[in-house]
Amino acid sequence: MTEQQPVLQMQDITKEYFGNRVLTNVCLDVNRGEILGLVGENGAGKSTLMNILFGMSIIAETGGYTGKVCIDGKEVVFQNPFDALRAGIGMVHQEFSLIPGFTATENILLNGEVLHDNIVAKLFGPRLKTLDLPEMRSIAEKSIELLGVEINPDTLVAEMPVGHKQFTELAREIHRPEMKLLVLDEPTAVLTESEAQVLLTSLRRLAATGISIIFITHRLQEIFDVCDRIVILRDGQVVKEAATRDTDIVQVAELMVGRSMSAKSVATRAYDEKTETVISIDHLWVDMPGETVRDVTLEVHKGEIFGIGGLAGQGKLGIPNGVMGLYPAGGSVTVHGKPIPLNDPAAALAAGMAFVSEDRRGVGLLLEEALDLNIASTAMQSQNKFIRPLLGGLLKWRDDKAIQDVAREYIEALDIKCTGTSQRVEELSGGNQQKICLAKAFALQPDVLFVSEPTRGIDVGAKARVLEALRTYNRKNGTTIIMISSELEELRSICDRIAIVDEGRIAGILPPSATAKEFGLLMIGKLKGEGSEVNSYA
Amino acid sequence: MRSIRRFIDTAGWPRIIIGLLLLSLFIAAPSVGVRVDQSITDTIVRFGMNGILVLGMIPMVQTGCGLNFGLPLGIIAGLLGATISIEIGLTGIAGFLGAIALAIPFAVLLGWGYGKLLNRVKGDEMMIATYVGFSSVSFMCMMWMLLPYHSPKMIWGYGGSGLRTTISLDGFWPHILDNFWAIRIGRNFMIPTGMILFFALMALIMWAFFHTKTGTAMTAVGSNPDYARAAGINVDKMRTISVIMSTVYGAIGILVYQQSFGFIQLYNGPFYMALPAVAAILIGGASVNKANITNAVIGTFLFQGILTMTPSVINNAIQSDLSEVVRIIVSDGMIVYALTRATRKSR
């Protein structure tokens, strides 16, 4: 690439955290108008690399780094994110850093407002200048337009759907004229597939205007859809750098995890309708914000892995949350013929059901507590496991030894990477946290296990192990598993039957062998009437 | 080097700095004519007096109800127990245990109501708790006048009705714990064994409680209420239990305080009791939603140690009677410092 100066060059970047080397001689170039895909498992060093680029204070606090960062050929050392912003680097995070009570315009131009002079400002200084709202609005409109989406610049961020928030954040970064390089950290993780497609199209348009983009994602397909080049990090080293057209998804996935992926689909058993019904859901409605369930009727049989798929916001997540009593629900649910009272988590647990929540950090874990307590406390509270009765049962003493034993058992069985049973869960990576959630549910020895988005936000390697753990558990214990996932491929690789939810109702139930087209039709079947584009529900 | 760094990490800078300050005060004390043995005795006694009040912070912090700024409510229960015990004429160890036995029902009742209230104001517990404390003190200011107490030891000499602001425990149970198995060396050094043992007992009960099923459920509630709900735990019930526990500890704590002090202070007495206890547990390294017994022990020792030492050392050093002023500056300064250290560990 000698014909033009790269926008960004990172040379021989090495970084240690307290003697623990996380990046080793990493080199990275980004050319003008290029989209570079940066992939790697969790903990491969992607975030650290981007923190160095962005001058995050954590880097300097932990002893700085060695190596060179050059912007337009000039070496720079960013002391803080403001330096990076001034140099034309923008970053869009996974979490939204927007002010909910402000409109899109106000958020986009925050701290970069167009100002009017007035007499008060002349007297008392520039802090009293007034805002030029029409001008601001048109700048905001322009940058939203550049993304190719339709967002009303006067909408409050709080009232926007998730996808629009992501676009607003993107618009905020690109409205600045000096913008050269945009870093996107998993921008599609919170988006539905169709929203993600729109985002990818926007990225292409941005790149065409000369902005360079570093795109970080776990969804490899997106990399192949949009990126010009791929850099693969593993254990803090660049293991491969290649033009996208010279490689393929299987190769990248292999390089990322450093081992060959086994053939994806294990043949699922032929579904046998004669086995007894374990759980039957009748006319269930659930009032879960953003995932309303309107009228769902289902029967799931013993030993089955039952998949529930569908687009985001259609209500697939509401089903387990309603059955487990976490959101207001109505209708009837029977397990082994016995009706289960709704809106009562304790009763649902007592009926032999367990739930791995999609909201891992919010509902699934006690982040500040040790991992053994995380694994054991649900079983302890709802089933009196790991309890030693003292004084004739008057005192229910926590049996710490039993808790540690069970934790050790699952650490081994699920290959959880940790320093020991007393490590705090917040220190674990996303994939390992998910395994803790699974262990927590397994410790309940449930009859029926609901697993909601088990692979969301975790890397390819951990994904495979999580699915494998579910499959093994199902085969070994005959546990009925109901798995809810946005990723159809994942459902097809593990489930015996797959139901597709659309507008809070079951649109249809298909065998995993059905074609992608059949699934796709069920998913969008009813959306058609209102126009199938994602922008339609703005 | 590494072991030093690990020590700093686990102890935390605030504790190391305050600890060094306390140590330097003890070292400086003899040079300005303050007796070290007397100072150590004072520090230990004050530790014993305040320790249980600080322990009482733990349950509410652990269930996410925040720091118990409503501690005066528990203290009022304790005062009711103490005054009723004197009214019915119990003396000696029976008087002290009687006061505890009488105080606990009041503490449970008040704590239950207080807990119900806090369950309705989730997120603003500490603000509401502060006002619960203040208003209950003011309400009791009226009640101390109106309640039908008759013991001549307690009521105003003139007028013949209403309780005095300060009631001497002479003849009832002054220093009853302090003197139990007390170790005296020379004229100036004394270890109040009974009071320390009682503190240890209360700490043991607290420790044991958090090792039961209910105690573990409480920790889960404080750590993540959504997790707790999904685990089938009744979140509101756990919070109420924790508030009741904090209130009961407040009631017992003030009785221990009083027996050592030798007086019962009514009316505005409980008004400013919450802040030192809050400051102590924060200095001990607790956050707004995580606390343990070590935090309480270390915090109480450091806070009370500084509070004992600074006024006497400074007073003697500059040869004038500023002790009260210095005491207020130091104690409020430590409270401000502790509150700036109050961290809410975010999820």
Give a description of the structure.
- The C terminus of chain A is likely disordered.
- The longest helix of chain A is centred in the C-terminal third of the chain and has 18 residues.
- In chain A, the strands form 6 sheets. Chain A has a 6-stranded mixed beta sheet, with helices on both faces.
- Chain A folds into 3 domains: 171 residues, P-loop containing nucleotide triphosphate hydrolases (Rossmann fold, 3-Layer(aba) Sandwich); 79 residues, no CATH class; 261 residues, P-loop containing nucleotide triphosphate hydrolases (Rossmann fold, 3-Layer(aba) Sandwich).
- Chain A contains 19 helices and 24 strands.
- Chain A has 538 residues and is an alpha/beta fold.
- In chain A, a hairpin with a 2-residue loop joins strand 11 and strand 12.
- In chain A, 45% of the residues are buried.
- Chain B is mainly alpha-helical.
- Chain B has a domain of 228 residues.
- Chain B has 14 helices and 4 strands.
- A two-stranded antiparallel ribbon of chain B has the order 1-4. In chain B, strands 2-3 form a two-stranded antiparallel ribbon.
- In chain B, a hairpin with a 3-residue loop joins strand 2 and strand 3.
- Chain B is globular and about 60 Å long.
- Chains A and B meet through helix 12, helix 13, helix 14 and strand 20 of A and helix 9 and helix 10 of B.
Question: Key features?
Answer:
heterodimer, A: 538 residues, alpha/beta, Rossmann fold, 3 domains, six-stranded mixed beta sheet, 19 helices, 24 strands, 34% helix, globular, disordered C terminus, B: 347 residues, mainly alpha, two-stranded antiparallel ribbon, two-stranded antiparallel sheet, 4 strands
Write the layout of secondary structure elements.
The complex is a heterodimer of chains A (538) and B (347).
Chain A: E1 8-17, E2 20-30, E3 35-39, H1 46-53, H2 57-61, E4 66-71, E5 74-76, H3 81-86, E6 89-92, H4 104-108, E7 115-116, H5 119-124, E8 130-131, H6 133-147, H7 162-174, E9 181-185, H8 193-208, E10 212-216, H9 220-226, E11 229-234, E12 237-243, H10 249-257, E13 277-286, E14 293-301, E15 305-309, H11 318-323, E16 329-335, E17 338-340, H12 345-350, E18 353-356, H13 360-364, H14 371-383, E19 387-390, E20 395-398, H15 400-413, H16 430-442, E21 448-452, H17 460-477, E22 480-484, H18 488-494, E23 497-502, E24 505-510, H19 516-524
Parallel strand pairs in A: 3-10, 3-11, 6-9, 9-10, 15-22, 15-23, 18-21, 21-22
Antiparallel strand pairs in A: 1-2, 1-4, 4-5, 7-8, 11-12, 13-14, 13-16, 16-17, 19-20, 23-24
Helix pairs in contact in A: 6-7, 14-15, 14-16, 16-17
Chain B: H1 2-11, H2 13-28, H3 36-55, H4 57-62, H5 71-87, H6 92-120, H7 125-146, E1 166-168, E2 183-185, E3 189-191, H8 193-209, H9 213-223, H10 225-230, H11 235-261, E4 263-265, H12 274-283, H13 293-318, H14 323-341
Antiparallel strand pairs in B: 1-4, 2-3
